[in-house]
Amino acid sequence: MENPSADPRVTVPLSPQDERTWSMLAHLSILVNLFSGFLGPIAALVIYLVFKDRSRYVAYQSLQSFIFQLVWWVGGGALVAAAWAVTGVLSAILIGLLCIPFAMLISLVPLAALVYGIVGGIQTSQGQDFRYWLIGDWVRGTYTG
Hints:
Structural class: mainly alpha
Number of helices: 7
Largest sheet: none
Number of domains: 1
Radius of gyration: 19 Å
Shape: elongated
């Protein structure tokens, strides 16, 4: 009998340990943003594309991580840049000085996203089903159809 894993059309499911590992790496891909600024979502997307047919769990976790990073890291970074730009412009007329505390608070959004991604990585490495607030249910509904 022929080995089914030798056929490129047949996908071999991941073991539970491999599912936990790849899910953890998808969530921890947010750490890549610390060095590159923007490659974390791409890493999560690559994990999704590679393993989507082999594990629904990894597909769900990596797609969640991808969308989370787009919203909170990339979108949050754009929001931080806009807040500081407006603060800088308005500081010429003294109103901007009042905006500095708000801009500093908004600057914490990417840091909070980083911590939340690490929490997701830890929970999935322990085999728990992790869902990002607001994003997890939307991804589950979209992914399951």
